[in-house]
């Protein structure tokens, strides 16, 4: 697992990748910083990822930034977990409907 990549949640909607990078720059060299946005609207989803050059920098950032208030919101900062394999489109919704109708269509 990559302990240099951090998940940063509960971000203010106004934050960009550049401002996220600036917010974490004091903890060490950052190799990547991105705020995740909705594909359709382009609006921030309120979370992002910061990747540091070293694990030590990442852990220092977690210790100091988790629950820090930024623009009235308490950040959630922790080591990023690997993305789980998911079916495209969020799964087959027909199975959900069938299961809840008690016996199919």
UniProtKB/TrEMBL annotation:
CDD domains with a match to the protein in the record: RRM2_NsCP33_like
Cytoplasm recorded as keyword: no
A molecular function GO annotation: RNA binding
Domain RRM: 4-82
Keyword RNA-binding: yes
Coiled-coil parts of chain: none
Pfam hit, one: RRM_1
InterPro entries, sorted: Nucleotide-bd_a/b_plait_sf, RBD_domain_sf, RRM2_NsCP33-like, RRM_dom, SLIRP/GR-RBP-like
Matching Gene3D superfamilies: 3.30.70.330
PROSITE patterns, A to Z: RRM
Keywords of the record: RNA-binding
Region (Disordered): 76-105
Annotated Basic and acidic residues bias: 81-105
Name by which UniProt lists this protein: RRM domain-containing protein
Organism: Candidatus Roizmanbacteria bacterium RIFCSPHIGHO2_01_FULL_39_24
């Amino acid at each position: 697992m990559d302990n240099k990549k951090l998940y940063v949640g509960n971000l203010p909607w106004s934050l960009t990748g550049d401002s996220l990078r600036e917010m974490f720059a004091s903890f060490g060299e950052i190799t990547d910083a991105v705020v995740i946005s909705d594909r359709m609207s382009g609006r921030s989803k309120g979370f992002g990822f910061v990747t540091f050059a070293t694990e030590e920098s990442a852990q220092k950032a977690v210790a100091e930034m988790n629950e820090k208030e930024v623009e009235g919101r308490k950040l959630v900062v922790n080591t990023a977990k690997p993305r789980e394999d998911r079916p495209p489109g969020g799964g087959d919704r027909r199975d959900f409907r069938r299961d809840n109708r008690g016996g199919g269509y």
